[in-house]
């Protein structure tokens, strides 16, 4: 365990099982449909890479980069799109792939933004859902794991661009980000 981590919340094996289960559900729900996975960078790239390998059928991918945290430990309240989609979405069932759903502000903004582009459908898949943390209600169709309100890192999640490479999800020592 990394010295800045006070607790391993989800092991590699627990994450892999949750991702496989989500992939199976997504495969069944989108069988025969034109599916576009949209990863929200940077945090979801590890999750997206594992998730796409668990989905059967044809799947296309695209990426968006948004900023709402910067180097801070809490949401700034402002969402800025740094990288938009490269293609059109009208002919696709779009699945937003996010690492963690906490305040809900970013996903609410992105959902409204992408709905204006008229996809066939638009749903959200998140690896982690912080229970009771949402400032706005977010309907998330696919949830991998429920987690407490703690500052989490690993498996793509970061603090100031560090810890993304950890193979597990852990609770960051508060002394690091206070």
From the spread of the alpha carbons, the general shape counts as: globular
Overall mean pLDDT: 91
Helix content: 10-25%
Q: In total, how many beta strands? A: 9
Radius of gyration from the CA trace? 16 Å
How many helices? The count is 4
Structure description:
This protein is an alpha/beta fold. It contains 4 helices and 9 strands. The strands form 2 sheets. A 6-stranded mixed sheet has the order 4-3-2-5-6-7, sandwiched between helices. A 3-stranded antiparallel sheet has the order 1-9-8. Helix 3 links the parallel strand 5 and strand 6. Helix 1 crosses helix 2. The mean pLDDT is 91.
Structure summarized in a few sentences:
With 178 residues, this protein is α/β, with parallel strands linked by helices.
Give descriptors for this structure.
6-stranded mixed beta sheet, 178 residues, single chain, 3-stranded antiparallel beta sheet, alpha/beta, 32% strand, 23% helix, 4 helices
């Amino acid at each position: 365990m990394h010295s800045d981590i006070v607790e391993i919340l989800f092991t590699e094996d627990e994450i892999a099982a949750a991702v496989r289960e989500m992939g199976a559900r997504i495969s069944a729900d989108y069988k025969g449909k034109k599916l576009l996975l949209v990863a929200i960078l940077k945090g979801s790239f590890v999750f997206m890479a594992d998730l796409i390998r668990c989905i059967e059928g044809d799947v296309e991918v695209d990426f968006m980069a948004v900023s709402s945290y910067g180097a801070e430990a809490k949401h700034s309240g402002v969402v800025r799109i740094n990288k938009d989609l490269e293609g059109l979405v009208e002919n696709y069932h779009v699945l937003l792939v996010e690492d963690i759903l906490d305040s809900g502000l970013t996903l609410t903004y992105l959902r409204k933004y992408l709905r204006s582009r008229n996809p066939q459908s638009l749903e959200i898949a998140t690896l982690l859902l912080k229970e009771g943390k949402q400032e706005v209600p977010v309907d998330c169709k696919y949830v991998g794991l429920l987690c407490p309100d703690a500052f989490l890192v690993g498996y793509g999640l970061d603090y100031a661009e560090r810890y993304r490479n950890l193979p597990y999800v852990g609770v960051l020592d508060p002394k690091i980000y206070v």
